[in-house]
């Protein structure tokens, strides 16, 4: 329970923790941030780490001169791309071994073919949009690997999506993070970055399930 309480407090007050780390350890903060973003996007069992809020706070710290904006952008972009690439590779390697292909009762060739076709057709925009949805940005690369999405296509959209995500949120923090209202309500903004995308995913899943039920008659 203590660990859970600490994680919740860290997520909601990541600005205080990060500022204290910069003050005490200086440039080591870049290594810490690289590790957090890489793990959050690259290890499928760690989707609860802060991503959006962390990038925004990094931008705010860059805005007040505590961190370097270009160094933060470069390192975090690399961490995001390498993390997704790692997650994709795990899914691509693990999928066939878990399902044992046609020899396993867990494998459904029709479902696999449909998933593969979906990722070949819509995988690019899915990989990009998933960057802005907590949990989805951790699971989508893994599922893309399982579905055997073409590596070259995944890599291209991974680089694009990672750049939009990192540059967009860090830059937003750089320009907006010092505004008094934003600083006073940062905890609410963090909650919004967690809850709003989650509600959108739930609503989308409910609509898809309802449409499928209607289609079946």
UniProtKB/TrEMBL annotation:
Q: Where would you find this protein in the cell?
A: Cell membrane
Which superkingdom, per the lineage?
A: Bacteria
Name the major location. membrane
Pfam families given for it? VTT_dom
Membrane topology term: Multi-pass membrane protein
* Coiled coil feature spans: none
Signal sequence interval, chain numbering: none
Looking up PANTHER family in the UniProt record yields: INNER MEMBRANE PROTEIN DEDA-RELATED (PTHR30353), TRANSMEMBRANE PROTEIN (PTHR30353:SF0)
Family listed:
Belongs to the DedA family.
- This protein is called VTT domain-containing protein
